[in-house]
Amino acid sequence: MIEPAVYPATAQEGLILIIKISRFLNRDRPTPRMTAHPSPNSQVVTAHVPANVWQIVVEKGAEVKMGDRLVVLESMKMEMAIVSPVAGTVIKVLCTQGQMVAAGQTLLVIQL
Fold first, then answer.
1. How many Å apart are CA 73 and CA 97, to the nearest integer?
2. Which pLDDT score is estimated for 50?
3. What pLDDT score does 15 carry?
4. pLDDT digit string (tens) for 70-108?
5. Dihedral through CA 47, CA 51, CA 52, CA 54, nearest 10?
6. Does the predicted TM-score (pTM) go above 0.85?
7. Which domains does the chain have, with CATH numbers?
8. C-alpha span between 107 and 94 (Å, rounded)
9. What gap in Å lies between CA 71 and CA 107, rounded to an integer?
């Protein structure tokens, strides 16, 4: 469901701007960001900027060390490697190659 909103705003020199904002809402199907509830012995890895998932380097069950490359994101023609903040085992991969992700969206869960 799309929920549009229109906000009038006054700009400099008496011009009136109309700003239209649309939000995509789909409460029937949870997104990975909504479904990732880590246990106390796991670490969530999130995207730090809105981006496209360029490459997923690891798969579920992979053993990772701190600093290992997990995912490569692409935003504004720049590639950004997301590295493991901890050592452990990848227990969930919540993104797919080519997917657009939001800042703060969960990409992976690592069991410590």
1. 9
2. 95
3. 56
4. 999 999 989 999 999 999 999 999 999 999 999 999 999
5. -60
6. no
7. 30-111 (2.40.50.100)
8. 5
9. 8
95 neighbors 31 (Cβ within 8 angstroms): no
How many of the other CB atoms lie within 10 Å of CB of 71? 24
pLDDT digits (tens, 9 = 90+) for 14-51: 555 455 544 444 444 444 444 455 678 899 999 999 99
Q: Where do runs of H (alpha helix) occur along 1-112?
A: 32-35
Q: How many CB atoms lie within 10 A of CB 2?
A: 8
Amino acid symbol at 32: P
Candidates 50, 39, 36; CA nearest to 100 is 50
Give the end-to-end CA distance of the chain in Å, rounded to a whole number: 38
Quote the tokens at residue 12. 């400099």
Per DSSP, the residues of 18-29 read EEEEEEE--TTS
Residue 27 has phi, psi (to 5 degrees) of -80, -15
